[in-house]
Specification:
This protein has 18 helices and no strands. The protein has 462 residues and is mostly helical. The relative contact order is 0.13.
Length: 462
């Protein structure tokens, strides 16, 4: 045993080893449920307040709804950078805590936070300088340009805090402190949901009010999460622990690249989806696909929260050499995740027109949105394998496989399909692109996950 490991063990004993015992000895179903309840609530709340802008802006006009949908691709880029630093640092620090290397975990936590702050400032400055050009790139036309630029500029100003709150949130989760992470996100969500109707409908600020509400919520989340990181056994962030060097950068890239590709390609797919929806169906089609995107985000968010409860279990136990617990957790999450998504898929298929109409009661919007929502509902349960498989690979430090699988749904398959299918099927091609991409992604993901599960079994038996 190394000196560093011994030091970690001594520190654990001093604190009663409560967190280590919890993550390595608690029965897997009980442990994942305990950790996932706060993260499921967090993800649902986040999806809800992300959809709040779409709902309240929908009371203004179809053009305003389309503008919010266009800027979502920019928000996805901000989220991509935040998750890149958060998952990259969180995966590594969790494995180090599992191995008893607490000092290494401390340095990674502060370094990941510092990198996110730097990236956030760069995105805010560069984005605002080139805002008009960027609006054109993401698909704004003469009818949506003004609203798009107003909404986007305000969102970009909040980029540094938005990225940093994603980092702290993920680091807390990977330490097993899902409750602190949940409270932070919920506080921001409450602020956003309260301010949306007040600023949009009462003070008549339009899309600017929606953007201010979103950034205000992100600021509150950041403050609460930062305070949460100073509580209990959680790692404290200190400037002295920031080490932006090759070692930490490579570890963040290895652990965070899958999230960067997943979120970054989500931005690209949203941009292309909006562009081709506009070409083949106009502003109403953009609004309809925007609503479908938000609805599907809400349905999958609970599954992602379930998976986030599994991630610290996976990374910590993998670092501790307890491979059987890693496998058991994966099968548990896939089984119940698929059942949950099947129930949601049935509800979305049956009530698709009513769901779309709740956001925007425009016949053209409902026609596009209802068909697309039903198509995506047909393959919704396969996301249990896609998401859990990717989270397992990422949490184990299998960066290349995790990056490929995370890139499949919104990149490897989606990008060529959104270009090819509309050429032959018109607007219908736009509406079915995500469905076809999900099926092809499943065929790619299953072999990657299966080979790692076999390795885990053989390692555990040897």
């Amino acid at each position: 045993m190394t000196t560093e490991k011994k030091a970690g063990d001594v520190a654990d004993k001093k604190h009663g080893m409560s967190r280590r015992d919890m993550l390595t000895k608690t029965p897997i179903p009980q442990l994942i449920i305990k950790l996932s309840i706060p993260t499921i609530i967090s993800m649902l709340v986040t999806a809800f307040y992300n959809s709040a802008d779409t709902y309240f802006v929908g009371k203004i006009s179809t053009e305003a709804t389309a503008a919010v949908g266009l800027v979502f691709s920019v928000m996805a880029i901000i989220q991509a950078c935040g998750f890149f630093c958060g998952h990259g640092s969180g995966n590594y620090l969790s494995r180090m805590l599992g191995a008893g290397k607490k000092e290494e975990a401390n340095c990674m936590a502060s370094t990941g936070f510092a990198i996110a702050m730097i990236l956030g400032v760069l995105v805010a400055v560069i984005g605002n300088v080139f805002a008009p050009t960027l609006c054109g790139w993401i698909g704004a036309d003469s009818s949506t340009m003004a609203d798009t630029e107003i909404y986007m500029r305000i969102i970009l100003m909040g980029a540094p805090l938005m990225m940093c709150q994603f980092v702290i949130n993920n680091q807390l989760r990977f330490q097993g402190s899902a409750m602190y992470a949940m409270v932070g996100l919920m506080c921001g969500a409450v602020i956003n949901v309260v301010l949306d109707p007040l600023l949009i409908l009462v003070f008549k600020l339009g899309v600017a009010g929606a953007a201010i509400a979103t950034v205000s919520g992100q600021f509150i989340s950041f403050v609460v999460l930062l305070v949460g990181s100073t509580r209990g056994e959680n790692i404290r962030l200190h400037l002295k622990n920031v080490h932006i060097n090759g070692h930490y950068l490579l570890e963040i890239i290895n652990g965070g690249a899958p999230s960067l590709f997943r979120q970054g390609l989500a931005a690209l797919s949203t941009l292309l989806l909006n562009r081709y929806a506009g070409i083949y169906g106009g502003t109403a089609a953009i609004a309809g696909m925007t609503i479908v995107t938000r609805v599907m985000m809400m349905t999958i968010s609970a599954l992602i929260g379930f998976g986030q409860g599994y991630q610290p279990v996976c990374s910590f136990n993998y670092g501790a050499g307890l491979k059987k617990r890693v496998r058991e957790g994966f099968y548990f999450c896939v089984r119940w995740g698929a059942i949950f998504l099947f129930v949601l898929a049935v509800l979305c298929f049956i009530f698709a027109p009513d769901i779309i109409r709740w956001f925007r009661n425009d016949p053209a919007v409902v026609e596009v949105g209802a068909f697309a929502l039903r198509c995506q509902s047909c393959v919704l349960p396969v996301n249990a394998v896609l998401i859990m498989g990717n989270m397992m690979l990422q949490s184990m430090g299998k960066g290349l496989k995790a990056t490929i699988t995370s890139s499949a749904r919104n990149g490897i398959f989606f990008v060529p399909l959104i270009i090819i299918l509309p050429m032959f099927l018109g607007l219908t091609g736009v509406e079915i692109t995500q469905t076809c991409s999900d099926v092809l992604s499943l065929l790619l993901t299953v072999p990657f996950v299966a080979t790692e599960l076999v390795k885990l079994r053989s390692d555990d038996e040897s």
